[in-house]
Each structure stands twice: as C-alpha cells, then as structure tokens.
Amino acid sequence: MSSEHSVLKQLHPLIRPYVEMVLRKGNVGVCMGNLRISDVKSGPTLTQTKEPCGDRFKIYIPFAGDSLKWEVIFDSCQPSNPPDFIFLGENGNFDPDIEKLENLTDWDPKNPESLVLVIEDLMREYRCYQKQLIEGYSRLQFEYSSLQGLEACDDVEVHMGNRLPGTLDSPVNFLIRLPIDLSPIPQYLVKDDPGEDLAVLLAKFHNTEGLRVTPQLFLSPKVEHALGDNTALRIPRFPTGGCLLDYVPQVQDFLQKQIDYIVEEYQRRREYVAAFISRFGGSVLEYDAESFTKLSLVLEWNEFFFVLHIELPSRFPQDMPVFTFQSCYHLSKTNGEPFVSVQKSYPYSPRWTGEEMAHRARLFILDTIPQFQKVSVSSTKL
Amino acid sequence: MSSTASTAEEEEVIPDSTVSESAQSESEEILSTQEEEKEEDAEKKDPPRDEAPHGESEEMNSLASTVSSSQDSQDSSDGTIHALLPKVNCPEKIVVCLDMSKEMSSRHVSSRDGSRFSPLSLAKRVIEIFVKTKSRMDRRHQFALLILHDAPTLVTDFTHDPDVFCEDLRAQEETMECQTTFNVAQLLQEIVQLAPLPEIEEVEIIPPPYVVRVLLMYGRSHCVPAAPEDSQQMLGELLQSPHLFLDALYVHEPPAEDNHSIEIFNAICDLDRKCLSYVYEVATNVTMFHNHMAKLLAHPLQRPTQSDTYYKLQSSEDVS
C-alpha cells in the first residue's frame, strides 16, 4: 500500500483521481495477482514547478498467469485529454481498433472512473486479440473453444507469450476460473477469512502443439485455509496427449471432492462427540463445540473418580481418537502435572457409527481403569 | 498392619474405603465417627434429582430441602431454570476464592498412610490439580486467586499460565482469625470489578466471549456468609447475571451442636439463584474432597445441572 501511496503522490493532482480509481477498482479478468503501477514520470512541462506533475506511468496487469506491461501517457498541460497507451514487450503487436474503445473516444474527464473503463475496454480487445492469435493454431483453437460453455469452467483467459528462441513457436497460457462453492464448509474454517472464493487453474502449454502441459492450481487464501494448505499441490497430473476439455472437469471434480471430504470429516466428528455426550451426558466436563476435536469427561468406577480426555485427530475417522486417562488425586512426581496415561491403541474401526464407538469406548474404559487406578496410586503419592 | 500383603495393596489402591471395609480394615484413611460413616453413606447415593440439588449428606439433605422450598418462594416468578446460554466452550475466567481463615489450618484430617492434612493444604492441592487440568482442556481459560480473610484480597490477577497461578497458590500459608461475619455481596462486587461481565443483547443466541466463574472454597464452620440488607438487591442482580456462575466447595467440621455447618451450607446453597451452580460439601473425607473438585471442572455452559450429573461407569453386567 505504501508503494501505491508514493505513486499517487508523484502524480499530477488532476490525473491522480483516475489512477486512484484504477488501483481501487482495477479488477479485470480472471485476476490472479495484483495490478501494479510504477515508474511515474512527467513529460515536458511549460512551467518550472515543485508540485507533483507526473503524468505518465507503467501499469502491470495480471493476465492469464503473465503480466501485461503497458505505458499510460497523459499530458499534464492538458489533463482533460484522454491518455495514450503503449503496449510494451511481447504485446507490441496489439493494435486495438480505436472505434471499439468507446470510453476512450468519448473520454469523460469529469468521471474519475474513466481510466478504469478504458482499461476494461482495452482488456476486452486484448482478449479478442489473443483469441485471434490462437486461431492460427488448430490445437489451441480447439482447446479454447472446447472450454466455452463447459460447466467446470467459469471463465478462461488465454495468452500467447514470446516466441521461443529459434522457433516459430510460442508458449501459451490458459487461465481457467473454476466454479467453487464453499457454502457447505463449516463456519469455523472460513469465518476468519473475508474475501472471495477463488480457484484458478493455470495450464501452461509449452508450445502450440500442446504436447507438454504444466498445470498449476491457485487458490484464494480463504479457499486455501478451508481446504487445507497443500490441496493445490495434489491436483491430478495432466495426461500426456490429453486436452483441457477432459482435464478441467477432472480438476473441478478434485476440488469438489476436497470440499465434500472436509464436510464429511466434520460431520463424523460431530456425530462422535454427540454420541459420547448422549451416552455420558451426566459426566460432561467440556467439549469443542466448534470443530468437535476434543471432549473431556469425569467418570467414576468403584468409587474411584478419574478424568478422561478424548482428542480426535485430523484424519478421524481413519485415525482413532486418543484417550488420555487423568488422575484427579495425584500429580506426577516427574513433572508436577496431573498423572496421565495415554491410550492410542484400542479396539476400533472407522466404519463404526459414533454410537458404536461410544459403546465400545465404554467397554475399553472398563477394561483399562483398574490398571490405571493401580498405576496412578502406586507411582505417585497422595 | 495385620492384613496380608495383597489386601494391604488393595486397600492402598482403592483410595475410598467403603463403609463395611472401614469398619474392618486397620489402615483407615479417615478418622471415622458414626456420624461421618452415615455422611459417607449418604454421599455415595446419587445426588437427589429434584429439590435439593446440592446436598450430598443425609443430614444436610433434609435441611437443604427446606432451603430449596424457600428458594422456590424466593423466585416464585421463576419456577423454571433460567435462560440457557448456547452450549459453547467459551473461555472461562475462573476466580478461585480461597478461604484463609484460621479454621482452614486448625483442623486436620488423615489420609490412608496416616499423614495429616489441614483443609488448607488439601484445598491447595486440589486447586492445583484443577487449574492444571482446566488449562490442559483449553489454554484460553484464565485463573485469578483471591484469598478470603475478613475481606477478599487479590493475590493473582487473571493468568493463562497454571504455573504462575500455582506458585502464588503454594505460597499461601498464613491463616488468620476472622470476624464473625462474611460479606458475600462484597466478594461478588469485587469479582465483577476484576472481571467485568460481557454485555450481550441476545444471551440465548450469541455465544459470549467468556464467562466468569467464581469457585468459592469456604472453610468456616461458625461464620455464616451473608449480605447486609442494603446490598441484598445488588447481590441478587449479580447472582442472576447470565454470564456469572458461582460454584462452591464447602469444607467444614462435622455438623454438631456447637457449630453452624448446616446453616452455612444452606446459606451457600441459597446463593444459587439460577439453579445452575455446583455446590459440594465435605467434612473429613480426603477422597471426596478430590472427587468434588474433579466434578467442578465442568464448563458452566456445557455441563448438566447438578441434579442431572451422573458419573458412574456401570460395569458390564449392568444394562448398557
């Protein structure tokens, strides 16, 4: 933000509002990465002045996994004139038809959003330009058109990069926005992450033949936290000779499965805790009422009281909960903490219902408690 | 000891002796009198389900039921249990109020190996186990220590760290003769200054950021906790607050002609205006002291009411 602030400070005050709007609202395209403005300069001025008079700058627009570099040139002597654009680097051949850029031809100096609108026009034309570029390549054309109207694809940007040295070939990026619905995810996983649910698949075609494709999945922070931080690393491989028409639905399916998985694991934990509360309701000390990962009870066997802590691992029900028996009478001699005995292995099956697990747990506790009593008394002192 | 080794081991192992065993065994862990045996017997019954939610001794029960009927008339507008907050395990701010009156160190009870403990040393021990266990269950819980002489004194302000708390707790040695009155209203007032209660509009729906729980460890058998007339209303309002909970463990001389144990117990029960408190009492049974403290671990928003508590793990022969 401070770099944005310094950019704005350098600009001529009449030009500044347009740029401010761009920084605030310049979300164009599938948008993976941040729009950036830098290199503020000023053209020749009529007067010598110490006031900021920057009237030209470079703008970096994220597009299809690359960054477009354009130069925007206003004239501080005539700030109400629309700006010129130079398309730098690999976009040098982009030559939009000015007639199609309505917000440029009818530039409204009084509207601070004018520059945003022009950039949107340009991006629209740029997308068309890219589409035209790939028309010459049947493979790419096929890939692009096959994605249109595909359910697993909300939006796609394609971008042809610089020519590969020594060839007439270029790498091509397809950036595909995948539909994602996080609403079934339990609240506690998403409540601290404002922001959008975004999942984009970047498919880098190393050449126009599409024989080698490197896929990468990018998730917004909210999605990443909800699904587990290394979900993006585990997407299915792009099959050799495969195509996006088949692959994109695979990835979308993979994402959906992650969501289903999270939801199901939560439900199973909740069911487990509910079953224990139902069976041992008169003995509840406390339990995690948000993510259902732990529960503690105080129980009595033959006038011997003890505390039982139950912790559900992240991969429950595949992994079994850990039972920790704790003495209410004795502190351990070694560390001054209440005496405990941890049980990580006992009769268990992930296929049991929560109720069955609670029933079997009771049997296990009954089996274990006599020994626990002996050990807790003999190894500590009252 | 004339018992065989195995029997001795068994007796060692079972910290609580049943009435029949204590009559027979030579290694008794408590000094038992007729009265105390009766008390133990009654204590082993399931807590009564309806009126007297708090008493676990027979003698206490009969008077407790009188108290609760007067309780009913006190909140006659409120026959039912109060509005229940959402059952969330929000952090607790637990204020341990440790009585440091002379009586806490002037009496002694014996454990099974013959060592003698004062109520104070037992209280310190069980509080330590309590704080460490609570902290293990949730690191967000906080603990403060108030000691009670004639007036409450803050020893430890709220801390998440059980070790810090326990160090201050262990340092409490000096008991004092106290006056014949104990002002409950003043205690609660100081507590809510120490821990302001959350202000929430829809208490039944919105989980509070924390609840305040007072753990009163009271040890006087001659001084009845009371509130002066002009504080009664304030006291009543505090005790009705949805986010304030008052639990108590009352350690006392066995009820007798020359003490007020029963009256005091009833006075403490009377503080349970919402019927959501856990109140326990114990005279000399060391094991019971520990058991009650374990029950007090329960989170006020998630635990059953005291009359609904049930801890017995039935053996396999019983109906599952």
From TrEMBL, chain A:
Intracellular or extracellular location(s): Cytoplasm; Nucleus
Alphabetical list of InterPro entries matching this protein: BRE
Annotated Pfam families: BRE
Residues in the signal sequence: none
Single GO BP term: double-strand break repair
Keyword Zinc-finger attached: no
Cellular compartments per GO CC: BRCA1-A complex; BRISC complex; cytoplasm
Keyword terms, alphabetized: Apoptosis, Cell cycle, Cell division, Chromatin regulator, Cytoplasm, DNA damage, DNA repair, Mitosis, Nucleus, Repeat, Ubl conjugation pathway
Domain of life: Eukaryota
GO MF annotations in UniProt: polyubiquitin modification-dependent protein binding
General function of this protein: May play a role in homeostasis or cellular differentiation in cells of neural, epithelial and germline origins. May also act as a death receptor-associated anti-apoptotic protein, which inhibits the mitochondrial apoptotic pathway.
UniProt comment concerning the protein's domains: Contains 2 ubiquitin-conjugating enzyme family-like (UEV-like) regions. These regions lack the critical Cys residues required for ubiquitination but retain the ability to bind ubiquitin.
Similarity section: Belongs to the BABAM2 family.
Quaternary structure and partners: Component of the ARISC complex. Component of the BRCA1-A complex. Component of the BRISC complex. Binds polyubiquitin.
Protein name: BRISC and BRCA1-A complex member 2
Source organism of the structure: Branchiostoma lanceolatum
Gene name of the encoded protein: BRE
